[in-house]
Amino acid sequence: MLKFLLKWLVNGAIVVALLLYYSEASFWGAVLAATGLTVMAYVIGDQLLLRLTNNLFATIADFLLAAVYLYVISDMFNWTLSMGEIVTISLILGLAEWFFHRYVFNEELEVPA
């Protein structure tokens, strides 16, 4: 649960800040969008793909998931996000995910004494 909360805080800060900067999303709309993306990325990227593959594959999947999710959500809510802005947000999220996955891997690989 702590890992999910950390992921939610990091992803939320990135997504909310950049959605508010790049689009006309409301604060609560951006929070809801960030929360939905975080839940999907945690289940698909961290719980499934990261356990079955490696950090690189899971990070690429998180980047692609974020890009598709932001494209769809932007269209649904009529936010004016360009493809460049979607890619920028997704790249920043991907970078954060890379470090988050390293944290998860390091913690799981440590053997208690």
Give your account of this protein's structure.
By secondary structure, this protein is mainly alpha-helical. It has one domain (2-107). The protein is 85% helix and 0% strand. The protein is built from 4 helices and no strands. α1 (2-22) crosses α2, α2 runs antiparallel to α3 (55-76) and α3 (55-76) packs antiparallel against α4 (83-109). The radius of gyration is 14 Å and the shape is globular.
Summarize the structure.
With about 110 residues, this protein is mostly helical. Helices cover about 85% and strands about 0% of the residues.
List the helices and strands and how they pair.
Layout: H1 2-22, H2 27-52, H3 55-76, H4 83-109
Helix pairs in contact: 1-2, 1-4, 2-3, 3-4
- Class based on secondary structure composition and strand pairing: mainly alpha
Note the gap between the termini: 23 Å
The SSE string, one letter per element, is: HHHH
Largest sheet: none
Main attributes of the structure:
mainly alpha; globular; 113 residues
